[in-house]
Amino acid sequence: MKESRDGIGHDRISKSSSVSSIPLILDIDDFKGDFSFDALFGNLVNELLPSFQEEEADSADGHGNVSGNDTLPNGHKRASSDAIKFTQGLAAPLFPEVDALSSLFKDSCRELIDLRKQIDDRLFNLKKELSVQDSKHRKTLAELEKGVDGLFDSFARLDSRISSVGQTAAKIGDHLQSADAQRVTASQTIDLIKYLMEFNSSPGDLMELSPLFSDDSRVAEAASIAEKLRSFAEEDIGRQGIQDMGNANASRGLEVAVANLQDYCNELENRLLSRFDAASQRRELSTMSECAKILSQFNRGTSAMQHYVATRPMFIDVEVMNADVRLVLGDQGSQASPSNVARGLASLYKEITDTVRKEAATITAVFPSPNYVMSILVQRVLEQRVTAILDKLLVKPSLVNLPPMEEGGLLLYLRMLAVAYEKTQELARDLRTVGCGDLDIEGVTECLFTSHKEEYPEHEQASLRQLYQAKMEELRSESQQLSESSGTIGRSKGASVASSPQQISVTVVTEFVRWNEEALSRCTLFSSQPAALAANVRAVFTCLLDQVSQYITEGLERARDSLTEAAALRERFVLGTSVSRRVAAAAASAAEAAAAAGESSFRSFMVAVQRCGSSVAIVQQYFANSISRLLLPVDGAHAASCEEMATAMSSAEAAAYKGLQQCIETVMAEVERLLSAEQKPSDYKSPDDGIAPDHRPTNACTRVVAYLSRVLEAAFTALEGLNKQAFLTELGNRLHKGLLNHWQKFTFNPSGGLRLKRDITEYGEFVRSFNAPSVDEKFELLGIMANVFIVAPESLSTLFEGTPSIRKDAQRFIQLREDYKSAKLASRLSSLWASST
Known about the structure:
Largest sheet: none
Helix content: over 70%
Low-confidence stretches: 1-22, 62-91, 489-499
Order of helices and strands: HHHHHHHHHHHHHHHHHHHHHHHHHHHH
Radius of gyration: 62 Å
Keywords: Coiled coil, Exocytosis, Transport
Number of domains: 5
Region (Disordered): 55-78
Organism: Citrus clementina
């Protein structure tokens, strides 16, 4: 490539070289590696075009000066120097190197064609050679596959052979191992027989034994051999005893050996235990561990384990036990409270846990089976130390002679039981964390409280009944003191003051519920199974239902008694017609007092009904929030409890219903008294003296409406929902009936009819507050019937055309017209009614 470039440069300088004299321009190496056509082309033409490159660089440098020098001051552009040169050199060749480039390109094209042919020839030869090599390679691979298959077959045969040889070697090894084991067993048996003969020499003679049994350095070996000999001898005696039932001397020699072995084992075990105790006092754990391993040869070391646990200070030190009692129960003679007991048990159980944790470290370091020792230790802690304090703390009371409330009653026992059970459960969990082996610590803990839990439901119900009785006695005492105080004040004033009955208190019912909530928490604590929990919860909730039902029923009955007393007081002052004015005045005054007593008893009963409803709502809310979720998992328990709740409240509902009926009677009695006392004949039969009629309600109507408005305010506040609607509807019907009977006593002229209509409007506006459509309709019909006193006699026939249902009452009203006889309305209306029917 360099030679070609030198030749090209020489041709350009001389400008007279021919194309045939140019050497090779291109080489095949130029196309290897990172080939770039632009680089190839540049290498070809750059040496032929130096002037063009310089002009191109000059033009690039001159572009930056065009804007500053091309414009003349007069505004005309200056002619470009290149344009002037171009105009001057039109006669010279524009591109003189074109001939050299053309020749260069033709030679390059020819050489490219030659190179392509060379490449094609080389590719053809390579393909041919590749085909030959591929054929050889395939043949070689086929031969290799055959060889590999043969090799695999050889390996398979070799593996089978190796496996067979291995199995044979394993069998031989098993036989050799079995033979060696038999040899060792036989050797040991010979030694054991020799030792057995030594123990079988004479009863009680242990002096002629081998040195093995007296060498303290070989105590472990001696213990193992002695235990094996004893087991063998005892087994042989048992077998011979079955075979030779009648031969008394068949196993006589082995019996001597057994007796001697037993004596030796006992002596050795006692010696080891003494050494173990001495090491324990010195805290020599290595010696203790050695003794424990040797003692494990005797009954798996049970005696050593039990001996170690039994010698712990917390089981044998009386001062420890007394300190436990003082820590939990406090000083003697003082009444321990559940909170103090809880703190004391927490401290005691923490101390026990710490002690067991320290013992666990020693047991793990000493005994070969620490889990078994821990199970013995923890069981001993629960059955001795914990049981001792529980026996002092939980003295089960008698259900026949209950402990007095002054000493806490049954509730104190139940609270102590709950605290002890909960804290002991926590102790069991802590001991489980420390380690208790395979001991069922939860089961052992439950056994500590089995006797208490068996009678727990009866004690809980008895406690709730005791609390209720104590509360009732407290309320009766307070009521009696209040009554005595009121009586003293009344006597000092020279008047008899009637003591108001003891009212139902929502606070007391809330206290009942609080007792039940506490009992419910204990039920949940003591009852792990859903069925048992549901049964206990139902029993506890039934106690609450009985308490609330009895309490509110008795409260309603006391309120009813005051209504009954007020009714009896009214009946006492009902007089006949022929009495003196003085007697009548005294009776009226007494009647006023009876009316005041009736109104007071009415209000008291309404307050009782209101508080009764609030109490029932509290119980229902408590059932929904706390009871139902515990009963739902058991089929039928929730429905049965709902039925019990409805049954329990039925007595209170019956008392409330009777009392509301008495309230209606009380109200109507006062309404009748006011009507009788205030209604005058002249109210509905005013004289025709030319004075304008009075359109105001009568004084009796005003008094009755004022009384009803005042007294029923308590009913509007106390009653709700359907109870309120039923009560007011019944009262409205009774008021309607009472007014009809009252108006039958009077005679009406047209102006009196207008006055009556005004009274009916006043009554109707008042009863509209009852929101009772049937009552409103009756008073509307009363307003229509009052028209019989206003219209002329000849218009009576058309008065009831649209309302035939009131015709019967209308006939009675018509008979009260002032002109009933003078206008001969009887005969006129009889023919009218007959024709209309």
